[in-house]
Design a protein that fits this description.
This protein has 353 residues and is an alpha/beta fold. It is built from 16 helices and 12 strands. GO terms for molecular function: DNA-binding transcription factor activity; transcription cis-regulatory region binding.
Length: 353
């Protein structure tokens, strides 16, 4: 009997199959019996195979809805050698996930983009040796098909392992050093920093400092853009390095800048959170913004709109970064050609500069 005939004439016991499925949980055999097709036909439909007649396809889809059947992902993984899951690895302590709004935007947008392909996202934190080992064991164990790497730090052993091809991986921002073999999606960090520094120069500021973060992705490029514009005026005492893009680091760096260069009249912070910390420290020190010191940030996160005064900053298109990261990763998983991508930035003028 053809598949079309199978689909047109459901098995006479199909109603019983539906009732049994409701009582004990549906199986692929229940779907086949209700649809009036073979078990193999159901399997081909569920696995997206071709060569299934339209009538059989419609019958199987209707039976799946009626029984409430869902594919056993573990069983499917044994056959396809794929987990239909991707790890979102954040190389930061847990508290940073909730402090920095950029991470929540990336997490939300990556989750949505993967869901369109029926792929789950698994959030993993990696800020200690123990967490790093756990992430590596999980990734090497075949639990995910790829990795989205967020906020990678220079010299991180996890980045080096992923660069050796443990699983397909894509970084948010350009990894440095030998880890640069990993494809990445990034804003044009260097040009964005040039835009901000040129803006501060155009405002008539003469002693422009920078709160830099060269150990985290994006940091070296932003420092390079600042130096490109100022040249010899980018004095060593005008640049303070931090280890992360946090509020506390920004406040501490601003305190150091004021001590080393009390005549400073502008500061470019490598992130909005760093800039928010700098604003708080300037307020504590009695410096008016922008009258005494102009402040610029980088990101255009919600923090930039909530500071007092609102922050002049560089907008990086995070939603597009997330979508492109997922696209590049899925291409790599499918073993299709894929390359790194750079996205344009934009100067957003507000009251702080």
């Amino acid at each position: 009997m053809s598949q079309n005939a199978d689909a047109a004439q459901p098995h006479p016991k199909s109603r019983g199959a539906a009732r049994r499925a409701m009582r004990r949980g549906p199986t692929i055999d229940d779907v086949a019996e209700l649809a009036g097709v073979s078990r193999g036909t159901v399997s081909r439909v569920l696995n997206g195979a071709r060569y299934v007649s339209p009538a059989a396809l419609k019958a199987v889809e209707r039976a799946v809805r009626t029984t409430g059947y869902t594919v056993n992902q573990s069983a499917r993984s044994l056959v396809t050698k794929q987990s239909n899951a991707v790890a979102f690895v954040l190389s930061e302590p847990q508290e940073r996930l909730f402090e920095d709004p950029n991470f929540s935007v990336l997490l939300r947008c990556c989750t949505q983009a993967l869901a369109e392909h029926d792929i789950s996202l698994i959030l993993m934190l990696e800020s200690s040796d123990a967490e790093r080992d756990r992430v590596l064991r999980y990734v090497r164990g075949g639990h995910v098909d790829g990795v989205l790497l967020i906020s990678a730090h220079s010299g991180d052993p996890l980045v080096a392992d992923l660069a050796r091809g443990v699983v397909p991986a894509v970084a948010c921002g350009r990894p440095g050093g030998p880890e640069s073999a990993i494809p990445y999606v990034a804003a044009e960090d260097t040009e964005g920093a040039r835009q901000m520094t040129r803006h501060l120069v155009a405002q008539g500021r003469r002693r422009i400092g920078m709160i830099a973060c060269p150990q985290v992705v994006g940091g070296p490029e932003r420092l390079r853009g600042y130096r490109d514009v100022l040249g010899r005026r980018a004095l060593k005492r005008l640049v303070v390095h931090t280890s992360d893009y946090s509020f506390a680091a920004g406040a501490a760096a601003m305190r150091e800048l004021l001590a080393e260069s009390p005549d400073i009249d502008a500061v470019f912070a490598a992130s909005d959170l760093l800039a928010a910390g700098a604003l708080a420290e300037l307020r504590r020190a009695g410096r008016r913004v922008p009258d005494d010191v102009a402040v610029g940030g980088f990101d255009d996160s919600r923090i930039a709109r909530e500071t007092d005064p609102p922050l002049t900053t560089i907008r990086q298109p995070l939603e597009r970064v997330a979508a492109d990261m997922v696209d590049v990763l899925l291409r790599l998983i499918r073993r299709e050609p894929a390359s790194s991508r750079l996205l344009p930035t934009e100067l957003v003028r507000r009251e702080s500069a």
